[in-house]
Design brief:
Chain A: This is Branched-chain amino acid ABC transporter permease. Chain A: It is found in: Cell membrane. Chain A: InterPro entries: ABC_transp_permease (IPR001851), LivM-like (IPR043428). Chain A: GO terms for molecular function: branched-chain amino acid transmembrane transporter activity. Chain A: Its main location: membrane. The complex is a heterodimer. By secondary structure, chain A is an all-alpha fold. Helices cover 73% and strands 1% of the residues of chain A. A two-stranded antiparallel ribbon of chain A has the order 1-2. By secondary structure, chain B is an all-alpha fold. Chain B has 11 helices and no strands. In chain B, helix 2 crosses helix 8, helix 5 packs across helix 6 and helix 9 runs parallel beside helix 11. The mean pLDDT of chain B is 83. Classes of the chains: A mainly alpha, B mainly alpha. Chains A and B meet through helix 1, helix 6, helix 10, helix 12 and helix 14 of A and helix 4, helix 9 and helix 11 of B.
Chain lengths: 339, 292
Amino acid sequence: MSAAEEVVAEGHEAVEAVPKRAMTLGTGTSLVVLAALLLVPMFVKNFIIFQMTMLLIYGLAVLALNILTGGSGQFSLGQSAFYAVGAYTSAVLMEYFNVNYALTIPVSAVICFGFGYLFGKPALRLSGIYLALATFALATAMPQLLKLNFLEHWTGGVQGLVVTKPDAPFGLPMSQDMWLYYFTLAVTVAIYIFSVNLLRSRSGRAFMAIRDNEIAASSMGVNVALYKTLAFGVSAGITGVAGSLGAIAVQFVAPDSYTITLAISLFLGMVVGGVGWLPGSFVGAAFIIFVPNMAESISKGLSGAVFGVLLFLVIYLVPHGSRQIAILGQQLAGKLRRN
Amino acid sequence: MELFTNQVLAGIATGAIYACMALAVVMIYQAIDHLNFAQGEMAMFSTFISWQLMQWGVSYWAAFVITLAFSFVAGIAIERILFKPLAKAPVLTNVAGFIALFAIINSSAGLIWDFTIKQYPTPFGSSPFLGSQLISTHQAGMIGVTIALLLALYFFFQYTRIGLAMRAAASVPESARLVGINTSWMIALGWGMATAIGSIAGMLIAPVVFLEPNMMGGVLIYGFAAAVLGGLSSPFGAVVGGFLVGVFENLAGTYIPGVGNELKLPIALALIISVLVVKPAGLFGRHIVKRV
């Protein structure tokens, strides 16, 4: 087929355009959710608090991917690699240099930003499915690289590293789990607000222009190369923060925790949550944390199949993920109010 | 020198398998513009079917033919039931669908046949080929079957009506519909053929990697790599890519110090990324021109 004819096949876009307003929850709803997140841990068991912490952490990682894909329209199946770099940065700093856990988080944000920016450079020439494949390669390579002999001194090789869980500071009467939850919540809220503002800013509009039409964006004077690598960097940086928090919460890092399975989970979280809808990241995170457990309790041997069937149901019934449900809910609420 | 020839020949033999997988990937990619992440699991399931048939006393070649037919029908069924409704959905939704299919097949195979490693017979035997120490008869058989398959596909697409119709449906669906080609069924046919080709790859590699539900993980990644290296729009390129990746993988494992078996995969993938950065459409792929 000739080049001109191939343009016809190029018709379907990778990501649908999302109106700017539809990217977040309203202020009222946000405050209610925040209040619930602040209050619930006081009434539940430590294990549930731990799970809520993990939900926020995975939510952050999905949010990072959402900025990359929903924002700038680039795919990534390699987020687990950035997550791993963040986790190892925190672990190594805490264990070998006795750095305070809270200080390791900005460090891993910076390191992962650089890492993502550098990876984004060669990736500039790739788009769509080729980029998915290149990042997929990165994710497959990461566990092997962490096991390399000359890094073993720092990474602990196959055995990995044990991370100490921090106590609540200033003698606050709180369990370690609870303190870590509030700490994670604070980081999450900060990054969430940052992300919302980023996507609403000039840079965010540049991302979206590139997503919708790269050539048109460049002819409008958007520096495509810069903003694409920037999106990669920001996404990697946030994923790195999630990785750091994850390492502290789980108290352990090992190469095999950061395989391609993790990258695929994060990707699924984004699809289930709704691409380009930031609050959906946390719904998606809940899906990837709780549904496999649920599937296991339905049928032990068939948990993968149950998970797959549920996933199919989601993409058939709500192809735009939880965003679609939220919009439906809003319309319903509007109707009820009018009656 | 002998080590070198040995490694190259072994590379060509595994390359034949990657070529088959790459061919299957490219066939579906041509038909629907998506990479099938479940291709390897589909091949694995087919291989289990043939193994089960042989356990029931069916001879190798009878099992081979029945499995091909089963895979062909199963491929069409998967397209009709699961992916036809997604034809107009965004790319990301389709990728999620492939991952869901992956999980379903992998876990069902594990439930039916469990996760223990099983021996799988080779029809060619494993003695040295023609008395030479360089290559075994199974490896020679793998190369032979791949070449025969390629020729068959070439004649099918070049000289049969239905092959022509499939090519037309893949390249210009609108015009193909206008001349009376049922493009929707051509896509299903593409799925059926790709699944059958994948099952051949599975049955050929099973004696080497042994039979178990996760056997195709690595093979599929190499298959993708081969397809991308050769260019996703070129079946011929996919095959060449397969052989190249096979040979490169083996040579890198032997000659680059510190690579060994563990780092073979990352090295092969690094090669792919380097090629893509220099030639984004792959070695034989066409560069796509975009219009605003």
